[in-house]
Fold these 2 entries.
Entry 1:
Amino acid sequence: MPTTFPAPRAGVSSDTTLDGSNPRYPVTIVILHWIVAAGVLALIATGLYMVDLPKNTGQRAALFNLHKSLGIVTAGFIIALIAWRSRRRPPEFPIAMPQWERRGAAVSHALFYLLMVLVTVSGYLTSSFSKYGPKLFGVELPHWGWDDAVLRGHFADSHRLIAWAFAVLIAVHAAAAVKHLIVDRDGVFQRMLPRSRSERTAPASDR
Ligand code: HEM
Ligand code: HEM
C-alpha cells in the first residue's frame, strides 16, 4: 500500500490535489514538451545512424548537417522550456502519489534540464572543433574553436556519453509515465496532454 503524501482529505479522490482540483501543465508547455521530446528522439536516431556511415559520402555530410540543424532548432525550444520552468512551479502532484515518486520525479526532471544543456553544448563544441563547423540549414554559425582532431575527439566522446545517459533517462521517464497511465491511473500522464473539449467545458469540480 503506497504511503500517500500528505494524507488525503475525506471526500477528495486520490487523483486530485488536496483542494480537489486536477491541475495540468499549461498547454504551451505541453506543446513545448512534445516538440522537445520529438526533437531529442530524432537527434538520438540520426546521431547513432550517421556516425556509422562511410566517410566522405554525400549521405554522411547531409545527415551531419541535418543533425546539427535539428540540434540548434531543438535548442531554441529547450531554452523556452527552461525559461518557463525557471519562473513557474510545475502543477501539484495528486495526493495519492507517494513521497519517493515525488522525489524521483523532481530529481529526474532536474537531470533532464542538465542533460538537455550538456548534450547541446557538447554537440556544438564537437562541430566547433572541426573544419565543417556548426551550421543551421547551410548557414554557418559562430565557431567556438578551431580544427583540432584531438579536442574534437574528446568532445565527441563526451557528446556520445551524455547522449547515452539521456537515452537511459528517457527510457526510465517514459516507463514511469506509462506506469502512471496504465497501472496507477492517477492522471499524472494526462498532466502532459491538453484537456479534451469535454474536460474544458466541465465544471472545475468535476475534473
Ligand atoms: C524524449 C525526451 C523527453 C524529454 C526531454 C522530456 C522532458 C520532460 C521534463 C523536463 C518534464 C518535467 C517538466 C517540469 O515539471 O519541469 C517532463 C514531464 C513529463 N513527461 Fe517528459 N520528456 C521526454 C519524453 C517523454 C515521453 C516519451 C513521455 C511519455 C511516454 C513523457 C511524458 C511526460 C509526462 C506525463 C510528464 C509530466 C510528469 C509530471 O507531471 O510530473 N515524456 N518531461
Ligand atoms: C538534444 C540534442 C542532441 C542529441 C540528443 C544528440 C545526439 C547525438 C548522438 C546520439 C550522436 C552519435 C554519437 C556516437 O555514437 O558517436 C551524435 C553525434 C554528433 N552530434 Fe549530436 N546530439 C544533439 C545535439 C547536437 C548539436 C546541437 C550539434 C551541433 C551543432 C551536434 C553535433 C554532433 C556531431 C558533430 C556528432 C558526430 C560526433 C562524432 O563525430 O563522433 N549534436 N549526437
Entry 2:
Amino acid sequence: MNNLNKIILTILVAFIAIAYTLYKDVLVLSGYYRGPAQKSNGGKCRYLEGLKSNLCEDIKIHHASGLAYLACGDEQSRKTLPWPPPIDAYNNSFPLRGIFYVYNIEKDKLTPLILKNFPDEEDFSLHGFGIYESPTESDNLYFFIINHKRTGSVIELFKHKLNTFELNHLKTFKHDLIYSPNSVAPVSKDEFYITNDLYYIQSHWKVQLEIWTRRRWSNVVFHSSKTNTTELVVDGLIFANGITVNWDYSHVFIGTSGTGELFIYERKPDNKLKLLDTINIEHSVDNVNVDPVTGEIYLAVIHDILEYMNGLADKFQSIKPSFGVIKISNNTKEDKFYGIKYAKEKIFEDDGTLFYALSVAAGDSSRKVMLWGSPFAEGVVSVANQKTIRVVLD
Ligand SMILES: *[C@@H]1O[C@H](CO)[C@@H](O)[C@H](O)[C@H]1NC(C)=O
Ligand SMILES: *[C@@H]1O[C@H](CO)[C@@H](O)[C@H](O)[C@H]1NC(C)=O
Ligand SMILES: *[C@@H]1O[C@H](CO)[C@@H](O)[C@H](O)[C@H]1NC(C)=O
C-alpha cells in the first residue's frame, strides 16, 4: 500500500467515526450488505465484432431505426493516462482522438463515423453524449458530445444524417459553468443539460479530497443558445453521473455515483427542474438510459465502489470491478397503493470476469437486445434476448 492510499484510508476512517450518514452511504455503495457479486454464466452475451482495443463509455440507441451509437476511445490513451481528464490532471503532448461507431442492431454491423468540418489535430476525447431527434427533421439527428480537450471541456454539436457514416460539426459550446461534464441531455437543437461530476478538475489531491470527504459539490447546468444563458439548475449532489430525458423531454433523470440515487425531475417551462422522486439504488450509478417505447430506465451500476476506486488506482491491471444492470419500471404490484411507485430489479450482475467497470447499459426492448460499454474494458458486449436474463439478488 502506498502513502497515498494510507492517507486516504486514514481520512476515510476518521470520517467514518465522525459522520454516521456518510459511513452508511459508503458501506451501502461498497456492497457490504449484499456481499460480493456473483459470476454470471454469460450465456447470451457476446462481444461485438470489430471493436477490439476500443473502450466505449457511452452508448445511445436510436430506437426507431435500430441504430446504436457508441462513443469510444483507444485503449492506449485510456490505459496510460488518467481518464476522463477532469477526474485528474493529465499532461499529454499528442492529441486525443476518440471515435464514434454506429452499430446496426438487426444487421449486426459496426461502422466507424467520420468527422466532417472538424480539424484532425483537434482533441476529441469522449465521455458522455446525447442525441436530439428533431420532430421536423426525421432524417437528422443532433449529437451533443462531451469533449475533454486539453484546454478544457466543451460540448460539441454535430449533425448526423441517418444511415450515413458521418458526423458534421456545427458548433462548440464552452462556458465557465461547464467545467467537469460527465453526461449531457439535449432537449432541443439549442438547449441541453449537463452534469458536472466534480468541482475540482486539475489537481489530483483536491480531487481525492473532494471524493473521499464526500463534498456535495456536484451539480447540473442548463444551457440555451436561444437565450444565451447558462445556469445552475441543481446543486449539492455528490458525483452526479448519467443524465437523460424521456421521449417527450418532459422529465429528466439523473444518477449519482456518490450517493447511489436516481433522481426524477420534471422540466418546468423555464427549464428549471422540479424534483418528483428519488429512488435509492444502493449502488453507485453510472450512465442512465430510458427505453422510449416502454419508459423503463436502465442503469449501469458499480457493485462495490471501493473495489472500483482500487481498480482505478490499479489501472485495472489486476482488479476488474464487478458491476450490475438495474431496471426501473412502474410498480404494478399491490404495494404501489402504499406509495411505492417504482419497481427496481437487478437484471444482470457479474463479478468482473465477463466484463468489468460497466459504465453504460443501453436496452432496446423491441429488438430484445442490450449493449454494454465501459471506458476501461475493451469492446462492447451485446446481450441478446435480455428479457430472459435474470440474476436474482436482494
Ligand atoms: C508536462 O509535460 C512536460 C513535458 O514532458 C513537462 O515539462 C511538464 O513538467 C509536465 N507538467 C506536469 C504538470 O506534469
Ligand atoms: C453569451 O453570454 C456570454 C456570457 O455568458 C457572453 O460572453 C457572450 O458574449 C454572449 N454571446 C452572445 C452572442 O451574446
Ligand atoms: C410509467 O408509466 C408512465 C405512464 O404510462 C410512463 O410515461 C412512464 O414512462 C413509466 N415509467 C417507467 C419508469 O416505466
